[in-house]
Amino acid sequence: MTDPRWDLVVRGGTLIDPAQSIAAKRDVAFSGGKVAAVAEALAGEGTEVIDATGALVTPGLIDIHAHVYHGLYIGRHADQTSLANGVTTVVDAGSAGWMTLPGLRDYVIPTYRTRVYAFLHIGATGLVINRIMPELADINFAQVEEAARTATENRPLVVGIKVRIAHRATGQGNQANAREALRRARQAADLARVRLMVHVSDTPIPLPEILDELHAGDIATHIFNGNAEQVLGADGRVRREVRAAKERGVVLDVGHASVHCDANVARRAIGEGLSPTTLSTDLHTPPPGRIVYNLRGLMSKFLALGLTVEEVVASVTSRAAAAIGKADELGSLAPGMAGDAVVLDLEDGPFSYVDGAGNEVKATRRFRTRHVIRAGRRLPAAHADHL
Q1: How is 21-75 classified by DSSP, letter by letter?
Q2: Rounded distance, CA 341 to CA 299, Å?
């Protein structure tokens, strides 16, 4: 008997791979932790074979905005809350600043099987001090040179600089701090030659002013928030500055977190043709009464809000990989790419998703995880947390 040709073969599923413009029946084989082959019907056997008949097969999901500094303030455990649900790559969005990054890098990430990248907070302590006070209420915490140095010295872990332009970050009503924090974050990102992610929910300064500072590849997260400064103008239509930002390549990221995504704003914007570039969770340990959905839950919610299956998958695979500068290795199941994949069922039924504003989105379909593949190996799947 000859040795199996592949480590793992996924047979009979419908491959949804927007990077390759594939939405068709395909077999996918993995060897040595990478994608080895893709074809309508692969010859040869694998050491392990997964029957994906009736299911969708996608690249491993990517969540570009989560908080996985487990043990520190709001951080979640990446393997338990993300990887088990099909999210093979997570980006920690500013939990750590230059003073606290070593803990995440040296003691937390090495315990995970999930692939983790990070946006470095412009604030020296990251979010840990926010439990006591706004992290940038004292602008001296925003240290450009130290942030840029740390980002540069910690590549490829650090993919960008993060700043929260919000009352609870820069001080209630403190426009001067907000503008200076944005200026310093922009400067640090430019010095380190990395992208900038800006929290734009509940901003004390005008949204167009923030968008003016963002270049192609930079990220505006919480883009569908329902606060005063949002994507919709006084007339209820999408603001021209928002359209212009997307047209020049600014990434419009959902960053849901329940309280940072108003379903009515999202529905109106999508109806006017402004779809999000990426879906992300802002996964964290929430206070009592707040529901934080996992990425599959958000995929289901935005499917109900009008995105197609292909658009939903692109927003958490190919587009997400591009948003963090990793499209050459993640976000697709082309041969040679990282061997991360998820087998998903799209099940029928009445489902409901709520947000922090009390809005409800009723859905007739939702994504469920059947199998998770990380580095070419099948892992146990889970249906934990909120769908």
Answers
A1: TEEEEEEEEEETTEEEEEESS--S-EEEEEE-TTSEEEEPEEEEEE---BTSTTB
A2: 16
**% residues pLDDT > 90 (the chain):** 93
> Which pLDDT score is estimated for 285?
92
* Paired residues of 369 in beta bridges: 344
Task: Specify the pLDDT at position 383.
Answer: 53
Q: What is the DSSP string of 219-252?
A: EEESTT--SSSSSB-TTSSB-HHHHHHHHTT-EE
What backbone phi and psi angles, to 5 degrees, belong to 308?
-80, 165
Q: Tell me what the mean pLDDT of segment 105-116 comes to.
A: 98
Q: Which residue reads 């990793």 in tokens?
A: 326
For the cut 80, the answer to whether the pLDDT of residue 382 exceeds it is no
Contact 197, 119 (CB under 8 A): yes
Non-local CB neighbours of 113 within 8 Å, separated by 6+ positions: 79, 83, 374, 379
Cis status of the peptide bond prior to 156, with omega within 30 of 0: yes
Q: Under 8 Å CB-to-CB from 81, ≥6 apart: which residues?
A: 68, 283, 294, 384, 385
User: Sign of dihedral through CA atoms 193, 195, 199, 200?
Assistant: positive
Decide: 372 and 296 in contact? Cβ < 8 Å: no
pLDDT at residue 1 tops 50: no
How far apart CA 150 and CA 239 sit, in angstroms, is 36
| Phi/psi-derived region of residue 324, left when phi > 0, alpha when psi is between -120 and 50, beta in every other case | alpha
Neighbours of 201 (CB within 10 A): 27
- Secondary element (H or E) of residue 372: strand 360-374
The SS3 call for residue 112 is coil
Q: Kindly report, residue by residue over 170-198, the tens digit of the pLDDT.
A: 999 999 999 999 999 999 999 999 999 99
Q: Is the pLDDT of residue 386 over 70?
A: no
